[in-house]
Amino acid sequence: MTTDASPPADLLPDVPPAPALARKAHASQWQLMWWQYRRHKLAMVSSLVLAFIILVAIFCEFLAPFSPNAFTPRYTYAPPQALHFFDRDADGSLVWRPHVNGYKVTIEPTALRRTFVVDESQKYPIGLFVKSDPYVMWGLFTLETKLFGPLKKGDPMYLLGADRLGRDMLSRIIYGTRISMSIGLIGVAMSLVLGIILGGISGYYGGWIDNIIQRVIEFILSLPTTPLWLGLAAAMPNNWPPLRIYLAITIILSLIGWTNLARVIRGRFLSLRTEDFVTAARLDGASEPRIIFRQMAPSFVSHIIAEVSLAIPAMILAETALSFLGLGLQPPIVSWGVLLQEAQNIRSITTAPWLFFPGIAVVIAVLSLNFVGDGLRDAADPYRQ
Amino acid sequence: MPPTRTVNSMTDRMTREPEPNDIVLEVKNLQTWFDTGRGGVLKAVDGIDLTLRRGRTLCVVGESGSGKSITARSILNIVPKPGRIVGGEILLHGAGPNGAPLNLAALDPKGRQIRAIRGHDIGMIFQEPMSSLSPVHTIGQQIVEAIRLHRPMSKADARARAIEMLAQVKIPRPGQSFDSYPFEFSGGMRQRAMTAMALVCEPKLLIADEPTTALDVTTQAEILDLMKGLQQLHGMALMFITHDMGVVAEIADDVAVMYHGKVVEHGPVNDIFFAPQHPYTKQLLNSVLALEQRSHLAGKSVKANQDDVILDVSNLTMSFGGRQPFFGRKLDGPVKALDGVSFALKRGETLGIVGESGSGKTTLGRCIMRILDPTSGQLIYKGRNAPAVDLAPLSRSAVKPFWRDMRMIFQDPFSSLNPRMTVFQIVAEPLRNHGIESGDELHERVAELLQRVGLPREAMSRYPHAFSGGQRQRIGIARAIALKPQLIVADEATSALDVSLRAQVLDLLLDIGQELDMSYVFISHDIGVIRYMCDRVAVMHRGRIVELGETQSVCDNPQHAYTQSLISAIPKPDPRLRGRTSRIRYISESVS
Question: How many angstroms separate the CA of residue B426 from the nearest CA in chain A?
Answer without folding.
Answer: 9
